[in-house]
Amino acid sequence: MNYEVKDFSIDVLQASFDKPVLVDFWAEWCGPCRVLGPILEKLVVNNNDEWSLVKVNSDENPELSAQYGIRSIPNVKLFDKGEVIDEFVGALPEQQIIEWLKKSIPNKYQDLLTNAETLFLSGKENEAQKMLDKLLLEDPNNSSAKLLLARILLFRDNAKVSDLINTIEETNENSEIIGSLKTIIDLLNEDKNSLLKDSPVKNLYLEAVNHLKEKRYDLSLEKFIEIIRTDKYYGDDIARKSCIAIFKFLGEENEITVTYRKDFGRALYV
After folding, report:
1. Residue 222's closest CA among 202, 242, 236, 237?
2. Which residues in the chain land under pLDDT 70?
3. Predicted TM-score (pTM) of this structure
4. Is 200 exposed, middle or buried (0-12, 13-18, 19+ CB in 10 A)?
5. Which residues are catalytic?
6. What confidence tens digit (pLDDT) does each residue in 176-196 have?
7. Which CATH number is correct for 110-169, 1.10.287, 1.50.10, 1.20.120, 1.25.40?
8. How far apart (Å, rounded) are the C-alpha atoms in residues 108 and 145?
9. What is the DSSP string of 68-93?
10. Considering the domain 8-104 in this protein, what is its CATH number?
11. Are 98 and 39 in contact, with CB atoms under 8 Å apart?
């Protein structure tokens, strides 16, 4: 199949609004380009139509090479919605390219995921859940959708959240939120809480957990931080772990996270 560019504005810029386009800037005289080219052509055939490939001979298209700052080849740029969103230079090994594609190719359901998250953050959890349920029927292995659904169901159905988490491949990108969900599930487990040793701070801990069940995150954090100030290592460092889990669940930009991160930091190092 011929992947050579005919009209860059149509083949790449316009086409990238339908699905991402991988553009391989190359030249006949370039040895590494001849190594990389067949790898990309093999991968595009087996990619389930998630992205397309266009090749640009940099010698025959000097204006495009200059426009996109091509100083060394092979140079591979990933276009989405008319813009370069990622790139790499050089003839990478096939497995490394596969990993790069996994990280770089936007999820084709990203707009739907964004809308669902917006609904979730605005308190419209039922609407967000319906959207995610529909998405997962079409794409049952969508980890991002599973994680967002887990956040929605966390205080309603712990068992289902645990099942969802167990089906998600843990990566560097999602490990923190998965850890956060697991910690909060444990916090909500009354049987585990009953096993905690008696202590002057145990009542504080139980109050913190009750506030968490009610989604009163600010009050829960206040109690956990008070435990850190009083008995830092109570329950195998449970108060510190709980604060971190709540911060990760809410997100680092959440107003409550921003406010209580400061108190949390001060309490740790008193």
Report:
1. 242
2. 270
3. 0.69
4. exposed
5. 30, 33
6. 999 999 999 999 988 777 778
7. 1.25.40
8. 12
9. TT--SSSEEEEEETTEEEEEEES---
10. 3.40.30.10
11. no
